[in-house]
Amino acid sequence: MILASQSPRRAQILRDAGFEFEVIARDVNEYAPDDLHPRAVAVLISENKAKAYNDLASKHVVITADTIVGLKNQRLEKPTNADEAFDMLKQLSGTHHLVVTGVTIFHKGKFRSFSEETRVKFRTLDDAEIRYYVEKYEPFDKAGGYGIQEWLGLIGVSHIEGDYYNVMGLPMCRLYQELHAFC
């Protein structure tokens, strides 16, 4: 099995679930039209990532994933700097948002794609809390600028509806079921 992802969180989730795999990450264009629902974007990007592993999928099961944070009809990508991370987290403060992960399983020319959605509620965060998180943690490799398993998630997420591991980037319960049906 190959996990086609640079995310250490995805690798840890898969490892914790008892899977043996190799991580092979390739750069893939993650463009998607702005007018698509986050669910469609996550699956589209996941499938595009899988296609970049066509040479390996004949011998290996390849798993790709993409996580999108949606807030009021806009996508919150990975922030590129501290100001952008602060602004993103300020927008998420006191609101519900949607986290969608698209996953593709690719093997021997066959694709199986799905998406999982989790609704997350942040309590109202003050500016000092947001600044502390941006300065002390690494919000730049995470959609929406936060990790639910990190300090801000621990002190700021007041409610979730759905799969916790989906918010971390890999809906393991659903992936396990899909792998079982696929293989």
Task: Explain the overall architecture.
It is built from seven helices and seven strands; from the N terminus they run E-H-E-H-E-E-H-E-E-H-H-E-H-H. The chain is α/β, with parallel strands linked by helices. Strands 1, 2, 3, 4, 5, 6 and 7 form a seven-stranded mixed beta sheet that branches. The longest helix has 14 residues. The mean pLDDT is 95.
Mean pLDDT: 95
Shape: elongated
Count of helical regions? 7
The number of strands is: 7
Q: How many strands, which pairing sense, and closed or not: the largest β-sheet?
A: 7 strands, mixed
Helix percent band: 25-40%
Report strand %.
25-35%
Q: How far apart are the first and last residues' alpha carbons, in Å?
A: 11 Å
Quaternary:
single chain
Estimated structural class: alpha/beta
Compressed to H and E, one letter per element, the order equals EHEHEEHEEHHEHH
How are the SSEs placed, and which strands pair?
Elements: E1 2-3, H1 8-16, E2 22-23, H2 38-51, E3 62-71, E4 74-76, H3 82-92, E5 96-107, E6 110-122, H4 127-136, H5 151-156, E7 157-161, H6 164-168, H7 172-182
Parallel strand pairs: 1-2, 1-3
Antiparallel strand pairs: 3-4, 3-5, 5-6, 6-7
Helix pairs in contact: 3-4
Explain briefly what this protein structure is.
This protein is an alpha/beta fold.
